[in-house]
Amino acid sequence: MFHKEGFKIMTIAAILFIAVNVVSYLSINTYWIKFAILAVSILLFLLVLHFFRNPARPTILDNANVVSPVDGKVVVIEEVFEKEYFKDKRLQVSIFMSPLNVHVTRHPVGGTVKFSKYHPGKFLVAWHPKSSEENERTTVVVENPVFGEVLYRQIAGAMAKRIVNYAQEGEEVVQGSDSGFIKFGSRVDVFLPLNTKIDVKLNDKVKGGVSIIASI
User: Fold this and answer.
1) Residues with active-site annotation
2) pTM check: above 0.70
3) Is residue 56, in this structure, part of any structural domain at all?
4) Are residues 40 and 94 in the same domain?
5) Closest-CA residue to 113 (of 174, 152, 167)
6) CA distances from 61 to 23, 207, 210 (A)
7) 30 and 93 belong to one structural domain
C-alpha cells in the first residue's frame, strides 16, 4: 500500500526509468552496460516505492494513551518552554526519521483540531537544537478529552523539502489516522502536559500509530 503523496513521483520515476532503458536498449551495443542500467533503474525505483509505502497500522484507540505520530527513533525527552501556542512548560518527546522510515504522520491522540499552522523556514539537519524553531514546519494542536491539548510539530530536515499537513481547525480526528506526510528525512516533536507519564526512553525505536509514547 502506498501513500497518495507518492503517486505523482512514482509515476514520473517509472516513465523516466522506462525512457532511459529504451534509449539504452536502442543505442548501446554492449550487453553488460544495458544490464547495469536496467539493474540500477530497478533498484532506484524500488527505493522510491519503499519511501512512499503506507502500511496499515492497527491503532488501539485509547484516550489514556498517546501513540507515536511517526516511525523512527526517540531523540529528545525533556521539559521545555513551548513558546508558539502554550507559552508555558511542556514535556517534549522528539522522534527522528531517517529516509528509510515510513514517513506518514499520524494523529497521536483523537479529538478536535484547535490549531493548525504552516511555517516556512530553513532546512537545518533535523537533530539541530534550533530546527524546531527555525526550520520549515507545521504545528497542530488536538484537544483530547483526557490529555487536554496535545501539540505535535512536523519539522523538515536537511533533505526534507516538503511537508504535507491535512489537519484543519475544527475537524474531529481519530487517533492513529493519517494527518500528513514529510518527504525525506525529518522529525516530529510532541508536546505533552507536565503530569504525563512518558513510556519510552531515548534511542527507543517506535512505530507510528502503534507504539505508546505516553500515558496518564
Assistant:
1) 186
2) yes
3) no
4) no
5) 167
6) 52, 15, 10
7) no
